């Protein structure tokens, strides 16, 4: 099966945060000898490199639909990643200490996309419940007092718009026509979601929510919360920039004072 | 131009010949850009090779938009950022870290300014 290997290798080696990294011994497929490899866990993928300095991984294990368990092995601190299905293989790995083994088993068992999605959905739900509770289910804080229009029943911004994640996965189309032409020079189209309203006019970015120590004030905190709810994508963009800036600061501070 | 069955599963886009059960291939959807091209068409390109576009023609504009939205949200990295965002929001509103109940509040991947490995 073809894979966009270059993209995989890029993901493995780029500077997005690795959820775990370290040396592990990996048992060979056919021979039972263990080989020491440098492992990097990113997202739901466990990459392994020949050496720590290697520029490209030699392999990857996609951590979906698997269980991580301790296993009986002559090798100390061994654990296994087991996939179901007749054609699937079990990967036996061994750490160099009890602590390392526990850390790996923990991070690998929480690495799946499904796990992440579960947690995100849960937080989304919590946040929604809190916000709708505050605003009393009304999203009309931006209306001018003079013009009262009859609103459709229910909040102006439906909960569906707030949910960033697709409701149904996996997704199939029935059929799609593929045209794989390298070197196509079509100009990139900057169509971000939520940046334009129905008429195609750009929306101004939302005002940043006011940071308050206590969230018990219903009035202005609710106003800020409702405004900041305009679309998740806009906020996502803004927070993304904030996070990038913070990371940059952190990295610079880490480098320390220049001589 | 070839007709393919396309399936989005977690952060992979699998593609099949329409009459086969095994996929021909898959695209990992991390660090990629989803772009609306002409009518009914969108493309996927990757950060490390931006000039190479994988183009898809849909049956309708509606289907095209649906796929663009789904693919934009399909990456693990997007979910990680969403999680950090929600965690932050909830923490601001309640003063409590919502990840504590799951015992994952200390995990590196959920921190702002996580260190590089």
Question: What does this protein structure show overall?
Answer:
- By secondary structure, chain A is of the alpha+beta class.
- Chain A has six helices and ten strands, in the order βαβββββββαααββαα.
- Chain A is 31% helix and 20% strand.
- In chain A, strands 5-4-3-2-8-7-6 form a seven-stranded antiparallel beta sheet, with helices on one face.
- About 31% of the residues of chain A have low confidence.
- Chain B has 117 residues and is of the alpha+beta class.
- Chain B has two domains: 70 residues, Roll (PH-domain like), CATH 2.30.29.30; 29 residues, no CATH class.
- Chain B is elongated.
- Chain B starts with a strand and ends in a 23-residue tail after the last helix.
- The model of chain B has no long low-confidence stretch (mean pLDDT 89).
- Chain B: It comes from Ibidorhyncha struthersii.
Nutshell version of this structure?
Chain A is an alpha+beta fold and 259 residues long. Chain A contains 6 helices and 10 strands; from the N terminus they run βαβββββββαααββαα.
List the helices and strands and how they pair.
The complex is a heterodimer of chains A (259) and B (117).
Chain A: E1 2-3, H1 5-13, E2 20-27, E3 34-42, E4 45-49, E5 59-62, E6 66-70, E7 78-83, E8 90-94, H2 98-109, H3 113-135, H4 159-162, E9 171-172, E10 176-180, H5 219-227, H6 232-255
Antiparallel strand pairs in A: 2-3, 2-8, 3-4, 4-5, 6-7, 7-8
Chain B: E1 2-9, E2 12-17, E3 25-28, E4 32-36, E5 41-46, E6 49-57, H1 61-72, H2 76-94
